[in-house]
């Protein structure tokens, strides 16, 4: 698995999927937003930026501009990782708002707006209130990231935030299962490997 592989979206929370844009799901760390092009690809896969907007940004921005924004996104990601690590495992207290000042400063730069538009589709004709955004510069790519982090801290119970129990896995997720007994990022990535390792351990223990 490398940065050209499809990104992982297993967290059941978009804010944590952003943290998982760098991960060690197998043995080698992978950073899907290591470059500006990687950031655009990840945002498209996450459905945070429409494909036509991503194409327009690619056409208009210089590669070094996009790489600079990717660096800002990585710094934002690691700041948010520290916040999540500090508060996970218990409900987020209201006084944590002071720690979120960097995120609020970024959200202040948002150029989002709403517009009334016609809605087309079989059985769905009419009007809809669309949320749109002005993409004046590559830095606007940071805004959808800020929004998913903001929604996450305001709506998620941090008691449900967990780190995968895989030996080398760094993926995080929100445990929304009944009973909150989820242990793995996914059964395919880490759950099955853990079962296989346990099986080998039992066989070894049974040998005379």
**Largest beta-sheet characterization:** 2 strands, antiparallel
Record the strand order, biggest sheet. 1-2
The overall pLDDT average reads 89
Q: Find the structural class using helix and strand composition.
A: alpha+beta
Helix content: 40-55%
Low-confidence stretches: none
Order of helices and strands: HEEHHHHEEHEEH
Give an overview of the whole structure.
The longest helix has 25 residues, at 63-87. The protein has helices at 14-19, 36-45, 51-60, 63-87, 101-107, 142-155, 187-206, and strands at residues 22-23, 30-31, 112-119, 126-133, 161-163, 172-174. It is an alpha+beta fold. A two-stranded antiparallel sheet has the order 1-2. The protein has 7 helices and 6 strands, in the order αββααααββαββα. Helix 2 crosses helix 4 (63-87) and helix 5 (101-107) crosses helix 6. The mean pLDDT is 89.
What's the SSE blueprint?
Layout: H1 14-19, E1 22-23, E2 30-31, H2 36-45, H3 51-60, H4 63-87, H5 101-107, E3 112-119, E4 126-133, H6 142-155, E5 161-163, E6 172-174, H7 187-206
Antiparallel strand pairs: 1-2, 3-4, 5-6
Helix pairs in contact: 2-4, 5-6
Give a quick rundown of the structure.
The protein has seven helices and six strands. The protein is α+β, with helices and mostly antiparallel strands.
């Amino acid at each position: 698995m490398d940065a050209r592989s499809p990104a992982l979206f297993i967290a059941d929370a978009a804010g944590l999927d952003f943290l998982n844009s760098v991960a060690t799901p197998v043995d080698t760390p992978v950073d899907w937003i290591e470059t500006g092009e990687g950031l655009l690809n990840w945002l498209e896969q996450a459905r945070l930026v429409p494909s036509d907007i991503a194409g327009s940004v690619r056409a208009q921005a210089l590669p070094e501009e996009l790489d600079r924004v990717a660096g800002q996104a990585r710094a934002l990601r690691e700041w948010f990782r520290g916040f999540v690590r500090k508060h996970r495992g218990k409900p987020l207290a209201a006084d944590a708002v002071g720690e979120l000042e960097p995120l609020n400063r970024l959200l202040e730069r948002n150029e989002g707006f709403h517009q009334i538009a016609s809605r087309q589709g079989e059985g769905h004709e009419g009007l809809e209130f669309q949320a749109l955004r002005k993409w004046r510069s590559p830095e606007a790519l940071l805004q959808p990231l800020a929004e998913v982090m903001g929604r996450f801290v305001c709506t998620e119970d941090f008691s449900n935030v967990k780190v995968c129990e895989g030996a080398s896995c760094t993926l995080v997720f929100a445990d929304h299962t009944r009973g909150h007994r989820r242990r793995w990022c996914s059964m395919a990535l880490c759950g099955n490997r853990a079962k296989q390792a346990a099986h080998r351990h039992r066989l070894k223990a049974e040998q005379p």
